[in-house]
């Protein structure tokens, strides 16, 4: 799967890149800014956005608003969140964004959550999920 990574923390960006590569995915963009992420999402074929919460929350969720108002209205977005506050969850749900806790994140739990996000954004599309992920 072609994944756009939008993460401000350089160490988290490296960790997620490594996990995606280990899982056989293609991190097609690695950005640390919400505007750059939005531009890349509009100009590059991607299958999912994997982002840190600070980038998503910046500017009143400007990145998510732009993604949902552009041709990326159904693009799966997965947010890596350090703490799951009710306010953050409500805001992310409004923009059809799934979350995964940052604490204890490993490649296997990331892959499972990515499968859930693809299924959630494409209900009944089991063939799509099989095409994106290795069967284990």
Would you kindly provide a written description of the structure presented here, covering whatever features stand out?
With 136 residues, this protein is of the alpha/beta class. It is 52% helix and 18% strand. The chain has a five-stranded parallel sheet with strand order 2-1-3-4-5, with helices on both faces. Helix 4 links the parallel strand 4 (77-81) and strand 5. The radius of gyration is 14 Å and the shape is globular.
What is the 3D form?
Answer: globular
Widest sheet: strand ordering: 2-1-3-4-5
Largest sheet: 5 strands, parallel
Alpha-carbon distance between the termini?
16 Å
SSE topology string: EHEHEHEHEHH
What structural class should be given to the helix and strand makeup? Answer: alpha/beta
Low-confidence stretches: 125-136
Q: Identify the quaternary structure here.
A: single chain
Strands, count: 5
Beta-strand share of residues: 15-25%
Q: Treating each run of at least 4 consecutive H or I residues as one helix, how many helices?
A: 6
The percent range for helix content is 40-55%
User: How many whole angstroms does the radius of gyration measure?
Assistant: 14 Å
Break the fold down into its secondary structure elements and pairings.
Layout: E1 2-6, H1 10-22, E2 26-31, H2 34-43, E3 48-52, H3 53-69, E4 77-81, H4 86-94, E5 98-101, H5 107-121, H6 126-132
Parallel strand pairs: 1-2, 1-3, 3-4, 4-5
Helix pairs in contact: 2-3
What attributes does this structure have?
five-stranded parallel β-sheet; 5 strands; alpha/beta; 136 residues
Task: Give a summary of the structure in a few sentences.
The chain has 136 residues and is α/β, with parallel strands linked by helices. It has six helices and five strands; from the N terminus they run βαβαβαβαβαα. Helices cover 52% and strands 18% of the residues.
